[in-house]
């Protein structure tokens, strides 16, 4: 269930990251959602390493971790694409 939870969190986090960081992204909304999924996995992995929850639970902390991970990956993606 953990992987499915983070994919769902990632889908939502990708959309929210796009709303928080508006602008033209290379690849459009689909790439942004995929980055959100990746960010959710990275955020969930780092969060579980630092004791901020597990990757299998549905909690507010896990959701915030997924959103932060998506925002970080989206920002990194934009910086790399501009260079």
UniProtKB/TrEMBL annotation:
Sorted keywords for this record are:
Cell membrane, Membrane, Transmembrane, Transmembrane helix
Cellular compartments annotated: Cell membrane
Q: What is this protein called?
A: GlsB/YeaQ/YmgE family stress response membrane protein
Bilayer disposition of the protein: Multi-pass membrane protein
UniProt key word Glycoprotein: no
Q: Which InterPro entries match?
A: Transgly_assoc (IPR007341)
Family, as annotated: Belongs to the UPF0410 family.
Gene Ontology cellular component list? plasma membrane
Q: Which residues cross the membrane?
A: 27-46, 58-80
Taxonomic source organism: Halomonas lysinitropha
